[in-house]
Every structure is written in C-alpha cells, then in structure tokens.
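Discussion board: Methods & Data

I've been asked by a reviewer to show the raw model output for two of the constructs in my manuscript, not just the figures. I'm not sure how much to include, so I'm pasting the format here to get opinions. Each protein appears as its amino acid sequence followed by a line of discrete structure tokens. Is this the kind of thing reviewers expect to see in a supplement, or should I convert it first? Here is construct A:
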Amino acid sequence: MSVFTGWRAALRIARRDALRAKGRSALVVAMIALPVLGVTAADITYRSAELSPAEQLTAEIGSADALYSDVGLGPIQQMPDGNMYDRASGKELSEEPPPVDMPAVFPKGVRAISEQSVSATVTTSYGIASTEITEIRTSDRMARGRIDLVGGAFPRSAGELVATEAFLESAGLRVGSDVTVTTSGKKYTITGAVELPADLDAKALYAEPGAVIAPWAALAGRDKKVPEPQPGDTRWLVERAGEAGIGWQDVLAANKAGALVTSRQVFENPPPDSEVPLLRTNPQYASDRSYTSDATGAALITVVAMALLEVVLLAGPAFAVGARRSRRQLGLLGTCGGDRSQVRAVVLGGGLVLGGVGAVAGVVTGLVLTAVFRPLIEGWAGHRFGSLALHPAELLVIAVLGLVTGLLAAFAPAIVAGRQSVLESLTGRRGVRRSSRVLPVTGACVLALGVLIAVYGGTAGNSTLVAGGSVVAELGLLACIPVIVGLLGRLGRRLPLSPRMALRDAARNRGRTAPAVAAVMAAVAGSVAIATYMSSSLAENDYAYMPMLTKGTIALTAGDPEAAERLPAARAAVEHDMAVTGRRADISRVWAGSDCNVYYEDDNGCGSVSLVKPAGKGHTCPLDTKGAKELAARLSADEHRAMMRTPACVDVHTSAGSFGYNSDNVVVGDAALLGTYVKLDDPAAAAALKAGTPVLLNEAYAENGEVTLKAVHTYNAKDKKNRKLHPGPARKTTDRLKVYIAKAEYATTPGIRMILPQRTAERLGLHTEPYGSVYAVAHEPTEAESQRVSAAIDQAGGGLWVQTNSGPNDRDSTILLILTLFAGVVTVGAAAITTGLAKADAEADLTTLSAIGAAPRVRRSLSGFQCLVVALTGVLLGTAAGLVPAVALRLVDLREAMEYMRENPMESAYTPIVLPWATIGLLAVAVPLLAGGLAAVFTRSRVALARRAG
C-alpha cells in the first residue's frame, strides 16, 4: 500500500469520525476558526483602511482632472505630485506678487469651478456655533469623491446650503432646517446632508459660489459695525474634455504664472526626474524620507509574535480529548493490522480535516463580517474605505496557518495515541502515569530566561529581543501549566462538592485542562500587554500635557474694554446654561503705560509688567543653565522628573499665560480666586489678599519674603489721553513687595504666577480693567451648552468667549475596549468549549453521580465551576505573562527618552508603567464569572439515557 493510499484511508476515517461526532467536531472547528476569523478581519480592515495614493488624490481633488491654487510666491517650481514647491528664483521677493489670474492660466478647452472658504458663526437649535463655510458647486460632478450626498438634495440657489452629518448632529439640526450666518444676518435652508469620505468627523457647511461671502462683504461695506469676512484663497477644480487631462507641460506653464497644480494625469504618469526643474535646483527633494516610531514597531513585532502563538494554542483543548474519545476505534484499527504510524495518521487526519474546515470557515466568516460591519469600522476609522482590499496571497497564508494549527493541535494526541497498547484502547483504561518533573523544571528555567531576555532587550532598546524574550517566557509558562493545574486539585479539600470536583477533575485531566488554560492565557497575555502599553503611554501624554486652565474650571474673558462692559450678561448666560458649581471669581488684567491689547501693532508702543526672578539656588533652574547637559547625564528619570517639578523649573517649562498679554502671569483678583481656580483653601492667604498683600504661587520668585515687580510705563503716541498725562520718555519702576508665599505645589497653577489685590495695583500706579470670570464646573461644556452661551454672548454684542481645557490628545479608549472584548470572547469561548469537552469526556462520572442520588443541580454547578476554573486560571496567568512584554517595551521607551533628555535637559524623560486596572478587573473577575454562569445555565440537569457499552 502506498503512502497516499494510507493517508487517503486515514483521511476517510477522520472525515467519518468528524461527521459521527458532530458536536465535538463543531467545537474543534470553532476553536480553529476563531483566530483565523480575527486575523482575516484585521488583515482586510487594515488593508482597506489604508488609502491608496489614488484614493488620497480623489479625496483632495474629487473627480476633477486637476486642482489649481495660488500660493502667493510668484513663479514657482514644483514636484509632480504638488506636495513640494519653491520659488523659481530661489530668492525672497522685494514685494508681494500680485494675485494670479487663474482663468487666464487654464489651458484651452477646460471647465472650472471655484472653491473658497470662510470662518463664520451660524445659528443652531441650541444657540450659535463656529464653523467653516465653503463656497463650491457641490452638485458638480467634479466634487464627487470629495463631497458626497447622503441625504436630501444639493443646493440650487443662493439661499440654500448643505451640511456634513457631523455638523448636523452637533448642532441638533436636520435636512430642512434653517440656519443664519450671524454676521450677515442672511438665512439659509439646509437642503441636504453630505459627508467627506476622507474625513467623516468634519463639521462644515457648503454653499453655492457667491452665496455667503459676497452678501457678507457688501453688508460690511455699508455697516462699519459688521466685521468684514476673512475668506481663504480661491482654488479651482478643473476638468478638460477628452482623456488628455492636465499634462506636465500644462503644469509647467501654470508654474510660470505662479499657480500650483495637482494633476491626476501627472500623478498617474509622472515625468522623468530630468524634466522636473525643481529637482535640477534642489536634488534633495528626490529623496522621500519617512519616519516610523521604534516603539510602535516594537509593539507590532511583539503583538504579531504572540498572536501566532495564540493561533497554535487555541485548538489544543479539543484535540486533547478527541483522540481519547476515539480510542476504541483506534484499538480496532490496531487489531486489524494497523501499525502505530497508521494510528497517528488517523489522528493527524482529523486535525487536517477539521483544520481545513476551520480555516476556510474562518476566512469566509471574517470576510463576511468585515463587509457587514464596514460602516461601523469606517466610522471608527474616521474615513471611508476606497474598497474592500482583498489580498489573495495574504488570505491564503492565513488559511494555511489555520490548517497548520489543526495539525499542530493534533500532533501531541497523535503521538500519545500511537503509544497506547491495543488492550488499553479496547478496554478504555487510561493507565496511571506519574507526572514528569523534567517539563516543569525546564519550563521554569525557560520562563526565567525569557524574562531576562525581554528585560535586557528593553534596557538595550532592541525590540526584536523584547519580542523573542516575551515568546520564550510564555512558552516557559506554558510548560509549567500542567504542574499549576495539578496543584489546583489540592485547593479543593475544604470546598463544597461542585467546586471540589471541578478542581480535582481539572487536575486529573491535565491533558485536557492545560491546553484550555494555555489558550486563555495566550489571548489574555496579548490583550494585557497592549492595554498596559497603551495605558502607560496615555499616562505619559497626560503628564506632558500643559493645561491652559486648572482642571474642572472654565474662564469667561473679554477681548477689549467695550466687550468687558457686556460681562454681566455673559456671566448670566454661563451661570444659567453651564454646569457651574460654587461661586464665581472675577479677575482683572493689569498693565503699565499704554495697553498692549490696543497698541500691539507698534514696536515698543506699549508698556509691560514683569516679576524679576532672583538668581541662585532655589530660583534658577539647574536644567536651564550652563552645565545642564552634564547634570542631566548624572540624573535618573525619577530624579529628573523631581527636579522638573520644582518651582524654579516648572516656571521655565510652563510659562504660557491665559489671563492677559504682557503681564507676566500677574492677575488682579480676590480671595474667591483662591478657592475657585487655584484650589488653595488657606484662610491666611485669603486674609493676605484682603489686607492688600499679593499671594505668590511660585516661591522661586520670592527672596526674604518679598518679590520684585518691574514696570515699564511706555505710552504710545496714538494714546492721546494717557500720553498727555504722561509726557516724556518711558518711565521704569521697580517695587519690592511683601507677599504671602503659597506652597511649592501651587507653582503649576496654569496662567497665574501672582495674584495682585486691586488696591495694591492702584497704589503702584498700574492700570487695571475687568477681564472676566472664572468658574468651577461639574464637567466640560457640551456642544449644546457652548452653543447656547455663544448665542447669548452674540445677542449681548459679542467680543467675549469661554475658554475650556481641551484635555490631552488620544484619549479614545476604543482600542482598549476592543482588546478587552476580544480577550473576553476568547476566554469565554475557550472555557466553554473545554467545559463541553470535559462533560463529554466525563459522562460516565456524571451518570454515576446521578445513580448515587446527586441532585440535578449538581450537574449545572459542576459545569459552571469547571468553566470558572479554566477561565480564572488562564486569565491570571495571562495577566502575568502579558506584563513581561509591556514592561520591556516601556524600558525601550525609557532608554530613548533618557537619550533625548540628556541632549535636551528641559525635555521630560518620564516613562511610567501604568496597569490597566479596568481591563484587568473585567478579565479577572467579570469574564470568569460570566463564563461560569453561562456554562451553568446551558447545561442540562437531567442525564440522557445511554445504552450499555459492550
């Protein structure tokens, strides 16, 4: 008999066995298909979400042949794709060039539509919102692909416009609603909803050319109280009859006139470098440099490595029992003359058959689910896919990987089945074998070695070593799982019946339990690794974020003296429409000489107020002086962080002002400001302000309990009133003031360095003016709240605005949620499948339980605890395994941050390691309980009648 004939028979037996045991086969297929499905969906999503260059071009120019724009440089030279350009002369022009007459530049036989944008405020269902209005004929076919209609109709007249869905949602409007441009007072009807395929989150309005800007400008010309529109430059979408498009020679001709051209024809058929004038004068433009993050690459390598390990492990629980369920059949094969290799072939054939079915099912299901949930995925990604990108070679590799998974999962059972004697197989005896001590000892050594390799890779900045060490450590932990499972049996001695039986069953059937625990561990390890790395990175971003205001506060501020007179009405709106808590704190700005808010256009045309910072220890930041690099080289990350948080260095690192210009973060306020904004609950500080003593928030400016306040009283010639009172050259004053010094922790208060009482400012001859109010709020203002307040301010006369903290970027927790859900689904699936296999494998034991009078609920509780044991053990081990690569990758980041800090001492090297407790809590508590509960609910209480064996 040939090899192929033997394998054909083995595959036929395996196929019949799979059809005979449909439930077990379905479990095996599910275990193999699950990771294949996930990898397939991830591959298709990643490839589809990555827009091709042609799709990116369509997002910019729509369906037009080219986009013409005036860059204001005169004659230029450009790259074929239009991303880089320069003056043709390479020199600065002595005067600004005149605007380009675009219609005269266009080639003959073209059709063009113009595009121009302007920022404006419009009415909404809540109040008023700021947005961008673009004048472009959206109904023209040249706009397709860039602006697409999703509901209603395109505007056909000057009184109509369309809005993006994101704008309609934020403004509480719909198709058919009316909006009014507040500056011009002109009303428009929203006739349709559109979307920008390249930016689904864009909030914008689109009108016909001449519908918004021209009436607004005309009204501003008649009424000086109406501000003039500030539109952007006009751009032109151009279409040429026929298939010629806009060629390279047309682009060169437009460049001579000063126009930049992005052409589809040139993009698809770029000229040789020898025909690009810009490359002859600037050859460096030919090198296309791209930069990628080492940390991102390291994380990607680690995740891919652990994902491959996950695919191999997930099918193990089913095949660990499958061969034992077929032992009588395999024994009969031996009695008929089959040798051990043929017995192994039958078991491996089962892996091949079920692996193939699982691989195909996983790929097909992944493709279908990606297509079904495509709109949701596009919404999460923030842009439309050009098309579902299917790469047959990649999908084939994924399917082959699933097939190999089935073979690998069946490999160990095949070896065990081949070693069993025919007598053991026919009688069903399992035999008694002592556990090997070699495997766990080896596993512990491999675990320690992997951890050392990963940590060394992290400290050395080698992401490959991190990935390799993490996988080695996880393999070592896998080898220890049978011993860990065996120890579980000893924990149930004093537990009730069901949990005691579940623990002992897991310990007795390690060949079935260990692979299930390994599958859960691998899934959880990957998710915990990514979640820990992301949580740590977010904590680092939070630390680096420089807020403009104290957390939990907003500021209402006026732009000029006339607007300050409207503060009462604006305060009433804020207090009515926003979640204000407690009392407000009013602030005033202070200045010397002429007001820089008014006379900012003239050089040295206004005065200034500043605090003089003493020199020396405690006053000067050591990281901002000569010898800073030598000092930084001796500091650890924690020591550098502590030094950066001292008042002397905080002041250098965060010196931005939020309350006035040219006042050196000195504001005029009273005790209310201490509690509302500074969060300083100190009666002594409040008493000091009441007595006329300034409160200094940064102790680095104090010397012997005093500060030096320097004022330059410069009066502008245009400031007729004050100039007449203060003729002559600018006067400089320096005053020493006794101050109340707050604790060092208040030096980080955003925007305020010292609070100056009103009467003290007047005594020093300084000018003051009400600037606004600060409020404590329960939450950041919503879109609706902001729009209501904006409407009230506009109705009162405008000129005021509400400042809020935007918060650090990248706070979206969607990825963490997806990781938690993925690990949870795999945990519940693996535990449930293993519980089903355990139930099938231990049917005789359950029958015995019923025979001796066990209550029906025992079957349910036993299944629940079996599932709970597998899920909880796998989650805890996976959490520990996932921390290894996460910590190692953070060490890579720490090394890079330290190197950068030693070159730039004022830059932070803070690289925290933060555990994602929410994710770990869900996985360690909620998911195991859910798995156990589901297993108990879906397990039958009664035993099905079975015929007697033999």
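Construct B, same format:
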Amino acid sequence: MKTLLSDSQQSLLQWVSQATGINTLGVKVRLRGNDLHILCEGSECPRRWRTLYDLLHALQQTDLDALTSYEQPSIYQVFVYGRKKGEYRPEWCHKVYLNQLDRHLEQVEKAMLEDAAKAPGGALILSNESLARRGDPNAIARYLSETLSAMGVAVQVKVKQSETGDDHQAASERLWILCQSSYSPDPSLLAEPIAHKLRQLKLSGYKDAVIVSQISGETKHEWRLRIDLTPPEVMLKEWARWGDVQAIARLLMAVLSEFAVTVQVSLQESTLHIFCLPNADATVPDKAFCLEKILQQLEAIAPQGILAATVYGQKTHDDTQPDWIDWLTLPAKEYPDLATPALELAAEGDEPAIIFLLERLLNPNLDRKLKTGGLRVLLLRKDDLFHIMCDAPICPSRKQVAPKVTQLIRQLKIPGIAGVRVYGRRSGNKEPFWHHGVDLAQRQRLVPEATPEFAATAEYVGELINQDNDEPILRPDLTTEEVQTFVSEVARDWVTTTTNTVRKWFLGSQLFTESDQSSNPIPDAQGVKVALVWGTLGLLLTLQTDWVLGYIVSRTIPSSSPVKNISSPQPKSPVSTRETPNPRTAFFTTNSPQSSQGFNSSGFTQAEDNVAATPSKNKANATAILLAARSSMPSFNVRQLDEQLALYRQRIAKNGKPADVLIIGSSRALRGVDPAALSKALARQGYPNVDVFNFGINGATSQVVDFVLRQVLQPSELPKLILWADGSRAFNSGRDDLTFKAIANSPGYEYVLKQAKTSENNNESSTNPEKSPPVAKKTPQKEINNYQVINNWLNQKLANFSASYQHREQIQSLFHKQLESLPLLKTSPKTSLPFDITTNNAEDDSTLTQAVDFDGFLPLSIRFHPARYYQKHSRVTGNYDNDYKNFQLGGEQDAAFQDVLQFTQSQNIPLVFINLPLTDEYLDQFRRQNEQEFQTYMLRLATNPNFIYRDLSQFFPQNNDNFSDPSHLNRFGAYEVSQKLANDPMIPWPVK
C-alpha cells in the first residue's frame, strides 16, 4: 500500500537522494518532533562514512527549515540509518547535531582515513546538556527535545523579561518553552520529568520557566505549566535559615565533602550537635579546620532558634567517646530576634514562619523537592481567615494536603484566626482546581466573603486581593454548621406554629390522644367499638364509590363487546404502515407538508439566522409509538428505549441490513450528533451512502449501553462502527442508576435474559461456541416481596365482584378529561399573541422528548441564554448535582464498560467514544475536577487496540447558541459536532 507523503517530505526525499546519490526508492524520511530521521537502504547496505560525508557537506550548504512547511518546528538533530533491503533492523545509526556540523565532519574524515578496526577519533562532540548549561535557548531546546521528540513533541525555547513590580529590583529572565504536537499530552506525564531536566541544568539568571502545550495548527494553547528554577543551594539556604536540620546538614556536607569529611547533624532543644567523621579509613578530621568551615557556614546562615552548636570529631560511628569536642556560639545568642524558634513565631501569626512550616510539612522528601521544585505555599490573610494556596507541577491531592494544613493551623492556635481555606492548583494556573474550608471557631458572619486570587508568581499576590465592595453573591467557604445555625434560627417560629396546628388537627379527629394526658384511658371494649365503627364506615364508603363509578362508566362509555369482534387488519410490514396510516391514528401524524414551512415543532415562528444546521425532518414519534405497541418484544419500562428499538428494527426491515454507524448514549447523544449531517459530511469526505442511526436514550449509563449492545440487539443487528457519545456522568458508579433499575425490573428484561439463557444452552451443543455473545456477569433480579404477592392476590379477588375494576382505564381517562375541562387548568391560546416569541428556551423539554425523527435524532431549536434560562430553572452547582453524586469511575459502570470493550473487540467492531461539548456555565470548579479525572481515565483506556477516544468537551464552551441547556446541544451544535467527527482522521469510517 502506498503512503501519501506531504510536500515537505517529498522535498526532503529529493534533497537526500541528490546529496547521497541514492535513488529516491531507497530513501525514507520521517519528521518527529524536532528530529529528522533518514533511512538509507539498497541491495547492499550503504557505506556509513561515505554516506555521512556526503550528507554532512550537503547539510552545511542547506537550510533544512526551508525544505519543510511553515508549521513544522525547527530541526535540531538528524538521525541517519543504513540497512540492506529486506532486513528489519539497520546495520548502523549515527546521530548528527546540526549546531556541530564542523566537528562531525572532522570526525567522519578522520574515520575514513584510519583503519576500520580502530575507533574513530577526531573532534570531541559536546553533549546538548553541556551546551544547555550555558543558558543558550537553542541548546536548551535541543536538550529537552532528546526526551520529548520520542513522544512526538517538538520544542522551541524563548527568553522573555519578567517584571517583578519592584522598582529597586532588577527584572529577571523567564524561559518560555513551547511544546507542539499533534495531540494534547497530559501535563501530569510531562510535569516532573521536564522539571527535573530543567533544574538539573542549574541555570543562573532564570527564576522560573513556563511550559506551554499547543496542538499543531491551533492558535490557543492547551495548558500551561510553571517550573521553579530556583537553584537547590538557594532553597537549602532558605530552609536552613529557619533552622531545618536536613538543610543545614546538606550545606555542611557540601563544604566538607571536598576534604573527605562526612557530617551528621541532630538538634536537641536549641543546640545543634554536629558529628564529623572521615569518609574512609582515614584519620580523625582536623579539629581546627572543621571548626573554621562549620562556623563560617553557620554564621552565614544564622539559623532561627538555634543558639549554639556542639561539634564532635571521631573516627568511626561506633566510637562511644569522641576524639575531640568543641562548642560554638551562633548569631541567635546575640540577636534576640533570631532566638525565637519558627514554631513560636508561627503561633504568633508570623506569615513567613507559617509558610516555612507548611512547605516543610508538605515536602517530606527533600530530594524530590530539590529535583522538581516541590510543592509551594502561598499565604494570604483576610479578616479572620487564612487563605492558603498549594501548587506544584502536578496538582496536589486534596485528601493528602488539606487535612495536614488544617491540622497544623489548628495546632498553632493563632490569635484572631477563626478559619482556614485551602486551595490546590497546578503551577502556572491562576484558578484553583479544588478548595477546602474549615472553621476553627464559631463564625456568625453570614455576609458573602470574597475568595482571593493567587498569581502564578509571588510578586503579584498582594495586588490580586478582591476589594470589599466587589464581593461575589455566593460564599464558597460557608460551612455546614453556619448554614444549619442560620436556618434553625429563621425557621424556629414556623416549625412551632406548624407543629401546634397539626397537633390540634390530630386531636380533633379523636383518633389520637396526648401522650401525657392525665385522664383515664378508654376501656378496651369501647376502643374495639370505635374501631368497628370506623372500619364499617370505610368499607361502606368504598363499596358505594365502586358502585357509583361502575354506574357512570356503563352510561358514558359504550359497550366494548362489538369492538372485540372486529378484527383489525394486520400490516404486512412497518413500511406499509407508514405509507397507508390507519384513519384512527392519522390525526397524530406530523408529516403534513405545510407544517414545516413557517413554523417549528413548538408552533412558534422560526427565527431567521445564519447558523448552519440540517433542515428539519418529519417527526417519527407517532410511528414509534405504534411500532412499539405492536411489537412482540415486551416493554423495558423505558418508553424511549422501546420506541428507539422499534424504529431501528423498522429501519433494518426496510433496508435489509443494519446501520453502518450506530450512535448510542444518553440524552446528550440523542441531541448531540445529527445522523443526516454526519452522513452528508462523510459523503463529501469520500464515504458515500453511509447509513447512520441515533440510538440515544435519556438517562443511559454505561450499564444501559452494555445491556443494549450485548443483550437487546441481535448479532445481525450490530453495526460496522459504534459511536458512543456522552460524558463523565454516564460512568459515575456513585450515582443512582434509575434508568437501568427501571429496565432491570421490566418484563422486557426478563424476556431478554430468558432468550440469552436459551441461546447459551443451544450454543453449548453447537460446534462454534466462541461466536455467541457473552451474557452479562451480574444480572440484577426483579425484586418481589411479600407485600407485592399479597397485593396481586387481593387485586385478583376484588376484580371478581367489583363494578369498576374492569373499567379502571376508562375511569382514569374520564377523570383526566374532566380535570382538563376545569377553567383553572385550561391553557390560554397562543395564536393571538401581539408580540414575537423566539424559540430560545421557550419550549418545555418534556414535550420534546418524543419528537425524534426517523434517524432517531432529537433536533432542538432552543438556544441557551443564561439570563432567560435561570429565570425558569434553578442553578444547580456540581456538588449538589445527582449525576456527580459520590463521583466514582470504578465499580459497576466501569465493569459494564469493560464488558463493552471485550464484546466489540470479539465482534471486530471499532468503538469510538466522543466526549461531547459542555458550556462554561456548566463546568464549575467541582464538575471541572471530575471531568479532569474522567479525562485521565479515558486516556488510560485509549491504549486498547479497538477503542478510540476523542475529546470535544472544549469544542465551543462559550458559544451558547449551540446549546439547548448548559449540558445539552441543540441541532445547530449537533451539526457542528457532526462536521467535526466527519473530518476526524482517527475514526475508521466504514467503506462500502
């Protein structure tokens, strides 16, 4: 199979062929990140040094960037391979640094002259790391590309001035590292490796580095990451200044290790004990020399709270008596400000001391702190609250950080502090990913309090505190105890009044008495009489009501016996039902040609706009209802599942084959992917006549999708490709899966399980048992208790002599009509409105759930306008959303998803999961955190060979015109998503 090469690759092929004299059929090139890979092959393996000699001369005279496209990043390294045709592995490989071509050429010329058995000499090739230590941006880019190019990430490095905001302090330089790739790498995978490599260079003059990830061809970046480039020595001195023992030991070791002396340090009260030992079997360290070096270092540090130091000299660790001992007086003895330990300063409210204690607590591993920069703490005090921001290259976990921070602040007992608010974020972000609040004392102030903003660097923190006059409406740090206190005080009188009223009503019925009543109780005989009287009255009232209802039904509804004798003609096929509808049901059809000319589905005039969308098609709700009613399949207790299944099977009967592409998922899939738009877009991409059907079901979770694909649909009804369009809510095992519970207690579910067991028994005796679809691992049984058994028995007995039981459906319909005829419940006509009404959030969702077309798609013309929407609907935050309740990606939903993966792989059906778009209004802090967890979960599963994950959650988060509500698309957004999917090269669309 031929591979289509880009123009840049064809230009490189011709250039390599001309430079080396090898035919273009024997040359292959590949661009990966900042690396160019060149493979030279022939009937005999090309000679290494001659090929490199010709290629290096050509590289000296050619600018490779001119041969590539404008979007392609700069090339830093060239890898040249040589092999014989037909072989798998190359015989030789050579790496060429483009910034050292002269050295490479000298090495190659030397090798060509010397004997092949001798090692090639010539000039010394410097590593990229040694060049990067000098601070050159191009060398740093080449140094990082050695690691990132293997992942398909290209690197560019620039230097910009970072203003500090202080006139007396010079501006520092900041490294900006742009990472370009064809995908968006997870920042948690790149954060610590890049931070370690950058900090390993020990660059001087750079305070920090900002890493920006961007997809090739896009204008906006995907994410940012800040790396602290503060040298390890500076970090150690900062901690040692606060009296940290490990930091002091590291600094003393760095001074004395050059003289074969090792140091051990411990702290007892306010005295530092320092033991000097030889590295090997040497003599005891020199006393005068050790005291001089140690005193010089400790005086420069001036550790907080350490008054003196005792220095010991001994030969081995096992010596009980040191060979010499001496005492040193430290600066804290002379200066009272240095005598107070950091813990006491923090208890008095000293913010730098609190920051040190928090950073030391949250960075227990000093080596990791020095390698990656560790976790950084920013502290702000506002009124009686401490706001503490914790950021790191990888966002710290709330469960690991928040309890430690709150416990330390609680133990300090700082005067005037009544609460603490803890935040967590990834370095480089401004907004936190999570927050945690604890009140240390009772706080009666219920006025909303502003949450301060934290900058990416500490210089700007003081300028970003919200003013008192611009506090938000909501208070995110309000604790549960404060809310309960406020509600109890406001509702106390109302509860008392309501209780007294209900109490008087119960006592007036003479069925209840007061528990502390002092009068004599009613005798047993009198109590039995009262019970008999009330029971007799209730029975007579029931019989009288039954007789009256039976009399009314017999007079108002004609006898049904003649109807039973009339046999309704059976349609030959669902197709004939659509062509010649029954006259009794013709009223419910909506395929009138006049209905779509000037009005939409709600009856309002259509809004004229230029938004692209598929033209509205005829609705299939009436047809779906009739097909589901006439189907031999029992109901699944979910009306939409019954109707979608009936529509799909009618489509199979009409076309003679299943759909090529099946869209499945919850209501987000039902409204979010337009089959007609997708089919037309695929035809323009060279995939003509692709049949697409939308099998979306409201409330469908992973369990529901698993049940439909593996149990409901027969093998002959399975498509060639499955598009699962949904989001994280469908995989939350902590929520109540009401849709699947309704299905599991339905007669259709029992029927499917019975059919599956029958098929399994038949397959066991067949010769190919592997091809049978697997049965679900755990099938919840329908719950039948004693109450249901007794209720069914009473219904059967009472139905024999009841006058109204046989006509209960007619009675219900009659009561419904009478209620609709009441003046209070009549709806006013909408045809005489004196003003225009648009379709933006004007229609009720309950009236639209059945208005699907014959492709199973629900096209909504509603447009989401937050100001109008939240006048009719309450704003529900993520922590109160039942779909995100007890968010958990493991459990029953994950097990169902694994079953789907195994099933589609066994059937050789590609499975593509589409994470549909959401609005910024919907993605609050709580939901955004769960979405990020879902992203990691999906990317981990995307390694399966038959599974593809495509993330469109941030496709157009601020374009509300493409949404019908905060989390569902309308038909305009579905059109855009369908166009995006049709142009996606990663999706294996079926070919006719």
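Answer (T.O., handling editor elsewhere):
This is acceptable in a supplement if you add a one-line summary per construct. For B, something like: The CA atoms of residues 56 and 652 lie 64 Å apart.
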